[in-house]
Structures are given as C-alpha cells and as structure tokens.
Amino acid sequence: LPFLIHFIMGNFVEPKALGDQLELHPVIVLLSLIFWALLWGIAGMILAVPIMAVVRIILKEVGQQPDASEARKIVDILENLAL
Q1: 48: which residues sit within 8 A by CB, 6+ positions away?
Q2: CB-hemisphere CA count at 13 Å for 65?
Q3: What is the pLDDT of residues 13-64, one digit of tens each?
Q4: What is the pLDDT of residue 82?
Q5: Can you tell me the distance from the alpha carbon of 48 to that of 29, in angstroms, rounded to the nearest whole number?
C-alpha cells in the first residue's frame, strides 16, 4: 500500500501540481525529469523543473518579438502540449 501511494503521488499528483504552478504541462514536467536525469543524474532531477520554467519564461519573452513565431510555438507546447 505505501508503494502504491508513493507511485501515484510521484507520477501523477506532483507533476500536475508543479505544472499548474509553473504553467508547464505535467507531461513536460515528467519528460524534463527524465531528460535531465539522464544528462546529469540526481542533480539533473533536482534542477529539471526550475530549468524548464526558466526556459519557458525566456522563450515567452523572446516570443514577444514580431519575428519569433518559433518561440511562441515552443511556449505553447510547454504550456499546453499542443502539437
């Protein structure tokens, strides 16, 4: 029973809560955890969500430029997972 609770909290509840607070889609949160864990190990897992939040903020600012349609598309994917 504790394993099941931990599994549900770690894989469903926490990514949803983090994604809502940081305006990132929960799937993006999980994918960033996997990517940064493979790249940097434990440190990457700790820094994954803050790094993605900073990337989203920077791209959102860059997307304000008239010729930055690619940045707007990436921000839309990060926030809504709209492919």
Answers
A1: 29, 32, 33, 35, 36, 37
A2: 9
A3: 877 777 677 788 888 888 998 999 999 999 998 899 899 989 988 988 888 8
A4: 63
A5: 8
Chain length of the chain: 83
Q: Could you give the CA distance from residue 69 to residue 16 in angstroms, rounded to a whole number?
A: 27
| Single-letter amino acid code for the residue at 23 | E
User: Which amino acid does the sequence have at 71?
Assistant: A
In whole angstroms, what is the distance from residue 11 CA to residue 55 CA? 22
* Residues ≥6 apart with Cβ < 8 Å to 37: 44, 45, 48
Residues 19 and 25: beta-carbon distance below 8 Å: yes
pLDDT at position 23 is 82
CB 77 within 8 A of CB 55: no
Using the 8-state DSSP alphabet, how is residue 65 labeled? S
